[in-house]
Design goal:
Length: 105
């Protein structure tokens, strides 16, 4: 390969991607409607839908916990009891908390 061929090779290899990047940056800077519109980005789910799913997950976990508590003969817990226990554990610095019932044997 001659010196001229190498120069042409490096110009194509590095120059073309650099040119495309510069053009994209300039176009993005000149576009005033916002990046969401430019990229045609829309969230897959709304914040309300995410809250509904989180609420459903919490109730499923509480139902599963109560199912296990019924099998052991322990009383069921309400959502307020479960969250109150969690907040109390965090406030006291006991991150793991003491189990409310002894483990099964």
């Amino acid at each position: 390969m001659t010196g001229m061929d190498q120069d042409y090779f490096f110009a194509i290899l590095f120059g073309l991607p650099l040119l495309l990047l510069v053009i994209a940056l300039i176009a993005g800077h000149l576009y005033r409607d916002g990046y969401d519109e430019l990229l045609d980005w829309k969230p897959t789910r709304s914040a309300e839908r995410e809250a509904e799913l989180e609420h459903g997950d919490i109730h499923q976990m509480l139902a599963a916990q109560n199912r296990h508590r019924r099998r052991r003969g322990a009383p069921e817990r309400t959502l307020e009891e479960a969250t109150g226990h969690s907040w109390a554990s965090l406030a006291s610095g006991d991150l793991y908390g003491e189990p409310s019932c002894p483990p099964e044997r």
